[in-house]
Specification:
Blueprint lengths: L23 H10 L5 E5 L6 H14 L7 E5 L16 H19 L5 H7 L3 E3 L13 E5 L7 H8 L7 E6 L15 H8 L7 E5 L11 H12 L2
Parallel strand pairs: 1-5, 1-6, 2-3, 2-4, 4-5
Helix pairs in contact: 1-2, 3-4
């Protein structure tokens, strides 16, 4: 059951429903996300909870009154027949709406309020920014979630990371096995980015590598991905 927000002015961490880690790597990921490490990378197959855990932990930190972070900024690449968002019909809000679906669903999972994504957005707690529009702005006091990072070129990932200002945390989530850029003749920059980040000073970055054993999504997801892995091994 969802409730009306009423005359309240803010959301608080206690408003969030709990999300318990189910694997050791999920526990490690949560620890890194709540730490002072400014860049956290979660890589691995679908169904391992990368998006849910990163989004839930970011909301927890942003809603804390004493937090240094004011907002969760989510960015995804719009990959259709080209990189341009102009190929999708309608106004900008209509174009990006299909890409908001995972975060709207997760917002509903984490908050028992009517239209929780809209509520979070109206209160200034979350914002979705297309990668096409992020260049040239400075992002202060934010947790930036780069979701489906395997769909970004290295140059775009570099552009996003260099937008980070004061009191900013960057969470990079992706799976090199789900590279949509290959369909349009381009190359994912996630692997190169991870190699570059390893050259940064100790404590600046943390990478959690998820495996097939970390898949917690129900249904046939895990068995199918295991079969895919076996197939590619020959």
């Amino acid at each position: 059951m969802s409730y009306s927000f009423g005359n309240r002015k803010n959301l608080f961490p206690d408003d969030l429903l709990p999300l318990e880690p189910k694997t050791h790597n999920q526990e490690r990921y949560l620890e890194a996300l709540y730490s002072d490490i400014p860049i956290v990378i979660g890589r691995g197959p679908a169904g391992t909870g990368k998006t849910a855990i990163s989004y839930r932990s970011a909301l927890q930190q942003v809603l804390e009154p004493s937090s240094p972070y004011d907002k969760v900024i989510i960015t995804r690449n719009i990959v259709e027949s080209s990189n341009s968002i102009g190929f999708l019909p309608g106004m900008l809000a209509d174009k990006i709406d299909p890409y908001l679906a995972p975060y709207k669903a997760l917002s509903q999972d984490f908050l028992n309020f009517n239209e929780p994504w809209k509520l979070l957005n109206d209160l200034g707690n979350v914002e979705f920014v297309c990668s096409n529009y992020i260049r040239g702005i400075t992002l202060d006091r934010s947790i930036i979630i780069i979701d489906e990072a395997q769909t970004f070129s290295y140059e775009t990932l570099k552009d996003i990371i260099t937008r980070a200002g004061y009191y900013t945390k960057i969470v990079i989530s992706g799976d090199v096995q789900q590279d949509d850029l290959a369909k349009i003749g381009q190359k994912s920059g996630l692997g190169k980015l991870c190699d570059v980040l390893k050259l940064m000073p100790y404590g600046d970055t943390c990478e959690i590598e998820f495996t097939l054993d970390d898949i917690v999504r129900g249904g046939i997801c895990k068995n199918f991905l295991i079969a895919c892995n076996d197939y590619h091994k020959g």
